[in-house]
Write a structure and sequence with these properties.
Layout lengths: L1 H8 L3 H17 L8 H13 L6 H15 L4 H12 L5 E4 L3 H10 L8 E4 L10 H11 L7 E4 L2 H10 L4 E4 L17 E2 L6 H4 L4 H5 L2
Parallel strand pairs: 1-2, 3-4, 4-5
Helix pairs in contact: 1-2, 2-3, 3-4
GO molecular function: N-acylneuraminate-9-phosphatase activity
Cofactor: Mg(2+)
Pfam family, one: Hydrolase
Length: 213
């Protein structure tokens, strides 16, 4: 986005860099606003981030939104693995933390509803990961027992800790940063894997089922 600000709207490099940093920081802090539509709120975030160039906010937001949707996809191996798991009669749930509208925006955009038997968004509930209640609710609605379920996630402090606190049978951690390590026993996963593809043999799925679709 910084390159586009410089190329398309001729912002100086320092202004483009600062605008992107400010927007990203504000967006991560508050991706949604209960009293505004998503488009209106995020345009206001760009107004704030662009400073002297705030008159460009609407144009910049539309380009940012298009780019965001372009990259907001389930990659081939991940989608293939989820499809294969369901084909093998595994029951799959998705639990995600965050405001309801912004999370459902992502869920719908990537087509997640086609791959999961249940989707829970913390913004729709009174609890979130790592609270055991949200895991127990998922198990209850999926009609499975916690001790017959596992958690797969990339965040130790929410996914792995929550899965362990809820009494799930196993937790699989996929670190986003290879150098990241658990800092306490409570966050120690049952297994650490490099990618979703590593789950295939564990769940009895042949490599060709996720690589040749």
């Amino acid at each position: 986005m910084k390159l586009l600000l410089r190329k398309e709207w001729r912002l100086p490099e320092t202004a483009a860099q600062k605008s992107c940093e400010v927007f990203l920081r504000q967006f991560r802090l508050r991706p949604d606003h209960s009293e505004l539509e998503l488009d209106a709120w995020r345009t206001l975030l760009w107004v704030s981030a662009l400073g002297d160039y705030q008159h460009l906010a609407e144009e910049v937001y539309e380009v940012w939104k298009k780019l965001r949707y372009t990259y907001m996809t389930l990659d081939g191996p991940a989608a293939n693995l989820l499809s294969a798991l369901r084909k093998h009669n595994y029951i799959i749930g998705l639990i995600t933390n965050g405001p309801s509208r912004s999370q459902w925006e992502k869920i719908v955009q990537i087509g997640a509803e086609d791959y999961f038997d249940l989707i829970l968004v913390s913004g729709d509930l009174n609890y979130e990961k790592p609270q055991p209640e949200i895991f127990h609710l998922a198990c209850q609605q999926l009609n499975v027992r916690p001790n017959k379920s596992c958690m797969i996630g990339d965040k130790l402090e929410t996914d792995i800790l929550g899965g362990k606190m809820a009494g799930l049978a196993a937790t699989f951690w996929i670190p986003l940063n290879p150098s990241e390590r658990a800092t306490c026993t409570e966050e120690m996963p049952s297994f650490t894997i490099e990618s979703l593809a590593d789950l295939a043999p564990i769940f009895g799925i042949a490599p060709e089922e996720i690589n040749n679709r």
